[in-house]
Design brief:
This protein is mainly alpha-helical. The chain contains eight helices and two strands; from the N terminus they run H-H-H-H-H-H-E-E-H-H.
């Protein structure tokens, strides 16, 4: 019974994270619909040194996020997808440094709404880490 509860809880958590990724990623396919579009474009522009055009970068990000969402929901390649999602999450924190004046009223203690929007990703990171399968121990 305990095993069934754990499996159910893990799948529910993965599906929940997957739905958020799917929802927010889908919005990015439609210009000016995602409230994070400008921030995402600006961040990718800074991180790629302007190499990736903004209209292409938002589509690539949308594809990545929708892909992560679908794979989590469908429970496909879970470990690999969680690692990809964790790398994605790491980049979501870049605006705290790249755009600190927009992220904080008084850095690093008083975040703006944007800073709070980014900071909540810590919860997603924790949830993703809890979904990683534990390494199996070999008994001697």
């Amino acid at each position: 019974m305990q095993l069934i509860k754990r499996i159910y809880r893990n799948n529910l958590l993965a599906i929940s994270i997957g739905l958020v990724y799917l929802w927010f990623g889908t919005l990015k396919f439609f210009p000016h619909l995602s409230p994070a579009e400008g921030l995402a474009k600006d961040t990718i522009d800074q991180l790629s040194f302007g190499f990736i055009p903004p209209d292409i970068s938002i589509l690539l990000l949308a594809l990545l996020e929708v892909g992560i969402g679908l794979f989590l929901i469908l429970n496909l390649f879970r470990k690999t997808i969680i690692i990809i999602a964790l790398f994605h999450m790491a980049f979501t924190f870049a605006p705290l440094i790249l755009f600190s004046e927009q992220s904080f009223n008084y850095a690093p203690i008083v975040p703006t709404l944007l800073g709070q929007y980014i900071g909540k990703n810590l919860i997603i990171v924790g949830a993703l880490l809890s979904l990683l399968p534990e390494k199996k121990r070999i008994s001697a």
